[in-house]
Protein: ABC transporter permease
Organism: Ornithinimicrobium avium
Amino acid sequence: MPGTEYSVEKQIDLNQKSYSQGQLVRRRFFRHRGAMISLVVLLFVTIFAFTSIGYGLIPGWWKKPFWVGGLVEDGGRPTLQIWPFVWGEHPFGQDNAGKDYFSLTMRGTQRSLIVAFTVGLVSTFIGTAIGAIAGYYRGWIEGLLMRITDLFIVIPALVLAAVFGKMANGGIWPLAFLLSVIGWTGLARLVRGEVLSLREREFVTAAEAIGTGSARIVFKHILPNTIGTIIVSATLAIASTILVESALSFLGWGVRAPDTSLGLLISTYQTSFQNRPWLFWWPGMIILVIALSVNFLGDGLRDAFDPRQNRTAD
């Protein structure tokens, strides 16, 4: 009837089509407007940051290096103008040393994204492995792994992050891998709970009855049924890492000069907030955009993987 809205599953029934679980997840995800907008924004920021100034030996289309200073023009004000659109020589302005602030901000965005996605991937792997082993084998193995997890949980995360940031000595990759050590605890508990439930299901009992090995049961039969929890947790870990890295760099325990990150830029130019606010606002806005985009993306993935969701079709 006109004006009637049906859920994705109801429309599938009416069309008499058969869809796999993966197709159902994709349909729910692509119909989540917030997630789609966030995905486009996140991809745009990432591609823009890495193509503008280049990365490693790959050159970018913006030719002003972030480490080269010069004469400060017009008080370092941004030349970017929205209407009529004008890009100019220094769209984000210049810092006190005459460095192009657009190059600095893109470099900071690169470093923050590298840390965030590395921590998200590594911590997800650690948390998934520990949670799956503890949930499946139980007994003294579960007790040992969960007590180690509790130990990391009771110590304040920012304290551990500060210690690891100091140990990294400003290196981007050591910082990323050390921060991964504190980001896996929540996922380990979630995966353990899922595995404890799934290991009692009939398909696991059947696999054990025909002599299937423990590793194959865990990785082939159990973990695929927890993929929704794992992916959502990974996206939330990326969002939180962006904020943790920014906080550490702001406090001087993260990325250090001559390299830079978004948090370090905010820390360096925090005193310029009154007379040159663009030095503070550009990195701050990018941090906000990345964190919000990843969080909304996580919401969309959660809704897509949760079979109890009954979102209406657009």
User: Anything to note?
Assistant: The chain has one domain: 34-66+73-305. Residues 101-137 form the longest helix (37 residues). The CA atoms of residues 135 and 192 lie 4 Å apart.
